[in-house]
Amino acid sequence: MTQSHASNTSENGAREDQNKIEEQKAKAAGALRDVASMMRERAAGAPVPGADRAVAAATRPLESGAAYIEQHSPGDMWSDLMQFCKSHPAGALGIGFCAGYLFHKLFR
């Protein structure tokens, strides 16, 4: 009886964790799409010629990033990150350095 209760509690906890992960993934993807949409709206009214094409090029990675987040599990994302780091160690080091520098500037 106790083992059954513990098993049910564990399953409920895992389900809740999975729901929270999906909710956060949806928030992150939505935020990326919102930024892309806001950039397009601002470019539409910009007096600079060609701004709409530049913004379209800039928003494509945001849209594809949002789709990637929605379609992949955290484990898949982690393995993709590890694969990138193995394939491009200098790039990974540079990204890590930049992220650390920005974190330091934001939270000192």
| Average pLDDT taken over every residue | 89
User: Can you count the beta strands?
Assistant: 0
Helix content: over 70%
Could you give the order of the helices and strands? Answer: HHHH
Structure description:
- The chain has helices at 2-44, 51-71, 74-87, 89-107.
- The protein has 108 residues and is mostly helical.
- The chain folds into 2 domains: 1-71, no CATH class; 74-108.
- The longest helix has 43 residues, at 2-44.
- The radius of gyration is 20 Å and the shape is extended.
- 3% of the residues are buried.
- The mean pLDDT is 89.
Helix/strand layout:
Elements: H1 2-44, H2 51-71, H3 74-87, H4 89-107
Helix pairs in contact: 1-2, 3-4
Keywords, please?
108 residues, mainly alpha, 4 helices
Summarize the structure.
This protein is mainly alpha-helical and about 110 residues long. It has 4 helices and no strands.
